[in-house]
Specification:
- The protein is of the alpha+beta class.
- 26% of the residues lie in helices and 29% in strands.
- It is globular and about 55 Å long.
- The relative contact order is 0.16.
- Strands 8, 9, 10, 11, 12, 13, 14, 15 and 16 form a nine-stranded mixed β-sheet that branches. Strands 1, 2, 3, 4, 5, 6, 7 and 17 form an eight-stranded antiparallel β-sheet that branches.
- Helix 6 links the parallel strand 12 and strand 13.
């Protein structure tokens, strides 16, 4: 990771090296934290923009509500903190990580009166799954770990503790020589990746798992919107791993992954074994919108400059 100069902590910018918490922080021990992954894009001509900032911050607050965390800040304060941190670090493009967590105080599962704290970190970050992934696609495997049940840890919260499930799946995939994992839900239907939503294309129809067992992805929503505007039929529908094997195309969506094609799953080549025409078209539409080249979606962008 390439370090930046500052991290925002509870309303103040502090030097990167000084952004520390106590080892008895409740969130460190029990996973009581919620976070977001957000990207800012260089739009050219000296301007930059955060992609769907309002939606990400709203989801952060909803995640806190699901965990029962009382946010000491407003959504507007967090949004301003994100822009201020990007400007302070002079980042025309990069990744943004807001994290709200239960701080130190009482120990034990019940967080009691421990303070709820918020940090915002930003740093330069390129293609999440490798620089060649957007064109060549990646290799994935079906994980032996099921996606968490909706009533176990509540999958609509982007909660820190939930991601132990993702870590187990990702580690297994990497150890077996794959780039990423796909998890099935507890009923055996295809759910999502370790940190991405999933789409397949069959006979010209785009399918994606409904929001029963997956995070309500903001990039997922963007892809659905852009695809329908472009004339594609998009179905939110459960599907099985064998339908994934037989897909004409498959691709991940996510803030970090953006739109990353899948070329192989469990040793089966998907489609032509590289980015297909639908994925390529959606990449074009997505990056046009993210970089301010689609007037219909200017509302998705929060501009800043320095």
């Amino acid at each position: 990771m390439q370090k930046a100069d500052f991290i925002w902590m509870d309303g103040k910018l502090v030097p990167w090296a000084d952004a520390n918490v106590h080892v008895l922080t409740h969130g460190l021990h029990y996973g009581t934290g919620v976070f977001e992954g957000i990207r800012a894009y260089d739009c050219g001509n000296g301007t930059s923009a955060v992609f769907r900032l309002h939606d990400h911050v709203r989801r952060l607050f909803n995640s806190a509500k699901i965990l029962g965390l009382k946010m000491p800040l407003t959504e507007a304060e967090v949004e301003k903190g994100i822009v201020d941190t990007l400007v302070a670090n002079r980042l025309p493009a990069g990744y943004i990580r807001p994290l709200t967590f239960v701080g130190d105080g009482e120990m034990g599962v019940f967080p009691g009166r421990n303070p709820v704290r918020t940090i915002i970190a930003t740093w330069p970050w390129g293609t999440y799954l490798g620089p060649e992934a957007l064109d060549a696609g990646i290799r994935v495997r079906i994980s032996s770990f099921a996606r968490i049940h909706a009533n176990t840890l509540m999958s609509k919260a982007k909660a820190a503790g939930n991601y132990v499930n993702s870590v187990l799946a990702k580690n297994e995939a990497i150890q077996d020589g794959y780039d990423e994992a796909i998890m099935l839900d507890t009923n055996g239907f295809v759910s999502e990746g370790s940190g991405e939503n999933l789409f397949i294309v069959r006979h010209g129809i785009i399918k994606t798992t409904p929001l029963t067992s997956v995070l309500d992805g903001i990039t997922r929503d963007s892809v659905i919107t852009l695809a329908r505007e472009a004339g594609y039929e998009v179905q939110e529908q459960l599907f099985t791993r064998d339908e994934l094997y037989c897909a004409d195309e498959a691709f991940f969506s996510g803030t970090a992954a953006e739109i990353t094609p899948i070329r192989e799953c469990d040793g089966r080549v998907i489609g032509a074994g590289k980015a297909g025409p639908v994925a390529k078209k959606l990449q074009e539409l997505f990056f046009n919108a993210a970089k301010g080249n689609n007037p219909a979606h200017k509302d998705w962008l929060t501009a800043y400059s320095f």
